[in-house]
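Figure 3 (text version): C-alpha cells given as input.
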C-alpha cells in the first residue's frame, strides 16, 4: 500500500509501472541524472530544467513517484526528489544500470 505521499512499498513496485514511467524520455533523463549522483542525493524538481510547463513537470514527477522510481519530500514551497536506488536494485537488479547507460537524446 502506498504511503501518505504516494510512494509504493518496495514489494509493491511493479515492473509494468516502472517500464511505463521509463517509456517517456524526459522521465528517463531524470532517472539518469539521479543515477549519476551519489546515493541519497536529493534535488528540487525544477533543478532538472525540463523543457515543459511547471504542471507537466509535476505530472512527470508524480508518475516517477507512483511507479516507485523516486522518493519526494516537501521542503518549503518545493519538492526534493531522490532515486530509490536500493529499493529498485532489490526489485529489479541491473535495471538502473541499463537506464544509466542509455546515451542522452
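Below: residues designed for each position.
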Amino acid at each position: 500500500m502506498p504511503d501518505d505521499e504516494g510512494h509504493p512499498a518496495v514489494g509493491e513496485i511493479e515492473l509494468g509501472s516502472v517500464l511505463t514511467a521509463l517509456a517517456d524520455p524526459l522521465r528517463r533523463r531524470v532517472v539518469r541524472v539521479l543515477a549519476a549522483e551519489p546515493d541519497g542525493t536529493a534535488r528540487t524538481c525544477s533543478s532538472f530544467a525540463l523543457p515543459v510547463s511547471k504542471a507537466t513537470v509535476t505530472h512527470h514527477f508524480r508518475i516517477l513517484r507512483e511507479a516507485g522510481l523516486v522518493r519526494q519530500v516537501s521542503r518549503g514551497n518545493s519538492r526534493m526528489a531522490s532515486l530509490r536506488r536500493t529499493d529498485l536494485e532489490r526489485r529489479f537488479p541491473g535495471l538502473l544500470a541499463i537506464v544509466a547507460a542509455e546515451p542522452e537524446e
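The radius of gyration is 13 Å.
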